[in-house]
Amino acid sequence: AIWNLGSINADMVYAVPHLPGPGETLAATELSQFLGGKGANMSVAAARAGAHVCHIGAVGADGRWAVDRLTEYGVDTRQIAEVSAPTGHAIIAVEASGENQILLFAGANHAITTDQLGQAMSQAGAGDILVLQNETNAQVEAVKMGRELGLKVCYAAAPFDADAVQAVLPYLDFLILNEVEAAQLQEATGMAPQDLPVAQVIVTFGADGARYFDTNTGENQVFPAFKVKAVDTTGAGDTFTGYVLAGMDRGLPMPQAISQAMRAAAIMVTRHGTADVIPDLKDVQDAIL
Ligand code: ADP
């Protein structure tokens, strides 16, 4: 099973005639609300890939719809707490050209308690996977618990913060970063991916694919991406990570898990939207790429 300490956001997308400037009051012409947050996206991706995913997180009373949506997509939501803080959200203004402006509020995503975490993790078994990203609190507590319980501890270093990733680094078995994050981590630590004290590292390069490092053997392997017509790359990285984790959880060798994740992410970039449009395993296997 996969345990995901992850964010749950309401993505509120407002169509605007132009991006607002300082002091400006602007009427939006349209509002669409979607399920978002890197954590939620990864849970949906791993569940769609066939894994049992238990999401550990928090929402406010205004976020029950998001929990229902996760349940609908096959995620185990029993460890999501309802707290007094508002649900995490992103206010996204988009002008006709596609240019956007995003305001993020972590809200309930930063209200996860150690008690909640301990209670959830007490149900995990050795060999299970724990994954987290940098959109919740309690990250260090979680990786320490994961280590103690014999879980495989995985971290997606996004949104990138050098202090946050360095705080969890000693407890990780697996680290996934995009190219920009990898450069930022190297800048902060002076260590290239293959030198990190983490057994397995993946660096993704968007349309250029990904590189997998086995830091014990020093080997690395390049995986070219599938050539597709990209229309919306949001959620590609989260889908990739969710699929890699689901593959690992199923016992697939890493190269196979990565190939499958590559297919899923390639399909994802041909679709508009995020959590709501993540392909399932059958779509991924049947797709002609
Ligand atoms: P992030 O979204 O975290 O920045 P990337 O942009 O590196 O991550 O994308 C993650 C993975 O998604 C890539 O390794 C690749 O497999 C797939 N991907 C992203 N963009 C494209 C694209 N334009 N064409 C095909 N695959 C893509």
From TrEMBL:
<dbReference type="GO" id="GO:0004747">
    <property type="term" value="F:ribokinase activity"/>
</dbReference>
<dbReference type="InterPro" id="IPR029056">
    <property type="entry name" value="Ribokinase-like"/>
</dbReference>
<feature type="binding site">
    <location>
        <position position="238"/>
    </location>
    <ligand>
        <name>substrate</name>
    </ligand>
</feature>
<feature type="binding site">
    <location>
        <position position="178"/>
    </location>
    <ligand>
        <name>ATP</name>
    </ligand>
</feature>
<dbReference type="InterPro" id="IPR002139">
    <property type="entry name" value="Ribo/fructo_kinase"/>
</dbReference>
<comment type="function">
    <text>Catalyzes the phosphorylation of ribose at O-5 in a reaction requiring ATP and magnesium. The resulting D-ribose-5-phosphate can then be used either for sythesis of nucleotides, histidine, and tryptophan, or as a component of the pentose phosphate pathway.</text>
</comment>
<keyword id="KW-0808">Transferase</keyword>
<comment type="subunit">
    <text>Homodimer.</text>
</comment>
<comment type="similarity">
    <text>Belongs to the carbohydrate kinase PfkB family. Ribokinase subfamily.</text>
</comment>
<feature type="binding site">
    <location>
        <position position="135"/>
    </location>
    <ligand>
        <name>substrate</name>
    </ligand>
</feature>
<keyword id="KW-0119">Carbohydrate metabolism</keyword>
<keyword id="KW-0460">Magnesium</keyword>
<feature type="domain" description="Carbohydrate kinase PfkB">
    <location>
        <begin position="5"/>
        <end position="279"/>
    </location>
</feature>
<feature type="binding site">
    <location>
        <position position="273"/>
    </location>
    <ligand>
        <name>K(+)</name>
    </ligand>
</feature>
<keyword id="KW-0547">Nucleotide-binding</keyword>
<dbReference type="InterPro" id="IPR011877">
    <property type="entry name" value="Ribokinase"/>
</dbReference>
<feature type="binding site">
    <location>
        <begin position="237"/>
        <end position="238"/>
    </location>
    <ligand>
        <name>ATP</name>
    </ligand>
</feature>
<keyword id="KW-0067">ATP-binding</keyword>
<keyword id="KW-0479">Metal-binding</keyword>
<feature type="binding site">
    <location>
        <begin position="9"/>
        <end position="11"/>
    </location>
    <ligand>
        <name>substrate</name>
    </ligand>
</feature>
<dbReference type="GO" id="GO:0046872">
    <property type="term" value="F:metal ion binding"/>
</dbReference>
<feature type="binding site">
    <location>
        <position position="271"/>
    </location>
    <ligand>
        <name>K(+)</name>
    </ligand>
</feature>
<feature type="binding site">
    <location>
        <begin position="37"/>
        <end position="41"/>
    </location>
    <ligand>
        <name>substrate</name>
    </ligand>
</feature>
<dbReference type="InterPro" id="IPR011611">
    <property type="entry name" value="PfkB_dom"/>
</dbReference>
<dbReference type="GO" id="GO:0005524">
    <property type="term" value="F:ATP binding"/>
</dbReference>
<feature type="binding site">
    <location>
        <begin position="204"/>
        <end position="209"/>
    </location>
    <ligand>
        <name>ATP</name>
    </ligand>
</feature>
<keyword id="KW-0630">Potassium</keyword>
<feature type="binding site">
    <location>
        <position position="268"/>
    </location>
    <ligand>
        <name>K(+)</name>
    </ligand>
</feature>
<feature type="active site" description="Proton acceptor">
    <location>
        <position position="238"/>
    </location>
</feature>
<protein>
    <recommendedName>
        <fullName>Ribokinase</fullName>
        <ecNumber>2.7.1.15</ecNumber>
    </recommendedName>
</protein>
<feature type="binding site">
    <location>
        <position position="232"/>
    </location>
    <ligand>
        <name>K(+)</name>
    </ligand>
</feature>
<keyword id="KW-0963">Cytoplasm</keyword>
<dbReference type="Pfam" id="PF00294">
    <property type="entry name" value="PfkB"/>
</dbReference>
<dbReference type="GO" id="GO:0005737">
    <property type="term" value="C:cytoplasm"/>
</dbReference>
<feature type="binding site">
    <location>
        <position position="234"/>
    </location>
    <ligand>
        <name>K(+)</name>
    </ligand>
</feature>
<comment type="pathway">
    <text>Carbohydrate metabolism; D-ribose degradation; D-ribose 5-phosphate from beta-D-ribopyranose: step 2/2.</text>
</comment>
<dbReference type="GO" id="GO:0019303">
    <property type="term" value="P:D-ribose catabolic process"/>
</dbReference>
<keyword id="KW-0418">Kinase</keyword>
